[in-house]
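Hey, I was hoping to borrow your eyes for a little while. I've dropped the whole record in just underneath, so have a look:

——
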Amino acid sequence: MIYKFRIQFEDYDDVYRDIDIETTQTFEDFKLAILNAVGFDQQHECAFYTSDDLWRKGRDLTVKKDGTPASLAKRVICDFVDAPHQRFLFIYDLNVQWSFLIELMKIGQPEPKKSYPLCVKTFGIAPKQYKIVHMPAHTDDDDETVIKSKRGRKPAAKKDPAPVIMDDDDIEDDDVEIEEEVTYVEQEEIEVGYTEDEEEKSSDSEDEDEFDASFGDGEEESFGSYNDQSEDY
């Protein structure tokens, strides 16, 4: 006997696949048929659940009644079909949670020379399993950044030195100090210059006194001798 199941994306109700599978085949065979029909890989874990008419989860077929893991390769499909329109839930990639709604549509006879499971009808374009992330174009600047940086970190930007902010009071105090220094220096230079002038004047006066003294003695001697000569005449 053959089961005809319709498998539909839970989030894409306009995309579905019809798969024929033998009643004695396993849920492992069913899993591979579904993934091949929608173009997904087979690298992730999955789970099958029985379901009611409202698509609520029932029994987990990957777990035994005692709680130990069960192999899907040992779970025969006909053992879990209890209604003419039996429903299942198939969850693929437990991290991403791709959800498929499965419903039994028909029970028929196998066709000769056909191998099952078999996808007999495809409707709609299945979504991509992985999202494509567009990276920015590679440039030469990226190479320079990698070479200059350490462990892929972007070199730190150079920071300008912080401006020094001075209050008006500080500026006025600096001006007063500068004026006092200038005044002090000028006054000191004036005093030094005045002292040098006084010393020069005193030195000049002493020289004049010495000169006058010597010149006066000469005059007296000279006039004295002249007077003496006039008396002789």
Notes: Residues 145-156, 217-233 have pLDDT under 50 and may be disordered. The chain is about 35% helix and 20% strand. The helical segments are 27-38, 140-148, 168-232. The beta strands are 2-9, 16-22, 46-51, 57-60, 87-92, 98-108, 118-123.
